[in-house]
């Protein structure tokens, strides 16, 4: 099944907006740019390229019910998962008996 032309255009525009809003933003954990340097979108052309990295929202205080803006930050999904795995390991949740 193919995607409608209007849906493809909307997806490209969404990608362009993501490139615009995430430009100069860095991962909370590794401090690297959220988007790879290969990511490029010319503002206004509606031709945003696919996002090469998976980005997620991290709750700084680890309380997922606290959705205040100051508690949420962006991170690479890989860095975010690594942080939580290390946290679980430190808390003894992953120890082998």
Poorly predicted runs of 5 or more residues: none
Largest sheet, strands/sense/barrel: 2 strands, antiparallel
Helix and strand run: HEEH
Please give the alpha-carbon distance between the first and last residues.
Answer: 50 Å
- Strand tally is 2
Helical segment tally? 2
- Total count of domains: 1
Question: What overall geometry do the principal axes of the alpha carbons give?
Answer: elongated
**Structural class of the secondary structure composition?**
alpha+beta
What fraction of residues sit in β-strands?
Answer: 5-15%
As laid out across the biggest beta sheet, the strand order is 1-2
The rounded Rg comes to 17 Å
Mean pLDDT: 88
Tell me the helix content: 25-40%
């Amino acid at each position: 099944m193919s995607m409608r032309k209007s849906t493809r255009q909307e997806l490209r525009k969404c990608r362009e907006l993501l490139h615009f809003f995430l430009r100069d933003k860095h991962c909370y954990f590794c401090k690297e740019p959220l988007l790879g340097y290969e990511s490029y979108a010319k503002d206004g052309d509606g031709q945003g390229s696919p996002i090469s990295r998976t980005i997620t929202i991290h709750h700084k205080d680890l309380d997922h019910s606290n959705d205040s803006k100051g508690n949420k930050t962006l991170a690479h999904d890989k860095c975010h998962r690594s942080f939580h795995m290390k946290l679980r390991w430190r808390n003894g949740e992953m120890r082998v008996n």
